[in-house]
Amino acid sequence: MGTVSLQGRSILGLEDFKAGEIERVLDVAAQMKRIVLSGNKKKDYLKGKSIVTVFSEASTRTRSSFELAGKYLGADVVNITKSGSSMTKGESLRDTLLTVSAMGTDAVIIRNSSEGAALFASKVKSPKVKTPLIFNAGDGAHEHPSQTLLELFTLREAGKKIKEMKYAIIGDILHSRVARSDIYGFTKLGAEVHLTGPRTLVPKKLEAMGAIVDDKLEDALKDADAINILRIQLERAAGGFFPTTREYARLWGINRERLALCKPDVAIIHPGPMNRGIEISHDVAYDEQSWIQEEVRNGVAVRMALLYLTLTEGKDIETDY
User: Fold this and answer.
1) 31: annotated binding-site residue?
2) Which positions does UniProt annotate for carbamoyl phosphate binding (predicted)?
């Protein structure tokens, strides 16, 4: 399966990933999915390892899938949320990390509203305590590497060839950590990445990362092989980025009529949670070309692959389940 090794590496973002490393994760994720679909999900590949999730932002899919990924592989997993921890008493992120590190933790999975939080976490060290690996589960509007990896894995399962595909990302690019990781991940594998949405939400500067910014939705959708419909972050809508959600749905919402501009076998993905009726219509959300629910299942497999490859030597695993 190759000799690419990620052992002992923190997963902070896809900006510093090589194409071969991404492919390695996707290949191992395919093996891990067989475990997820099997009648015996409990393995011991990470037996004796301890994992802590530290989430200061709300999450359903990412936190749950990382937790299940660790448990399916035999690790002990503990969840820490801001509301249920000393962070509500003013404890700093640094002190929280030092505390969980002192408990012998092998990996810390962090979600934080500040860009660069994961990188900061990876540099928090103590001379008397082993520093755990850090997994970025979303840091502000910076990156969300495991989300992009599960999207790549999902599209590969959908029969899509990533190299030279036209991949369109629609919506709130400005605040999206998924979009930034997507640009890194998809372009490294040879895809043509298009960005579109209201001008207030699509920074032109992202073209410097290798993406193409389309002012017209139709240009981005035309002959697209896959589209990623981003959540409109309603908590930020009051900032005046667009007039109303109704206006957004009329001008930028993906419905069946607009979907017809894409290739007939276009794959539809969405990082969730969905605002049905705003950025995506009900019928498109549940269209036969939609892979949105499969993304959730694939998220567990991809995060199992990341934990396995970084916390072990990453040897090939048994496949007769």
Assistant:
1) no
2) 61-62, 111, 144, 147, 272-273
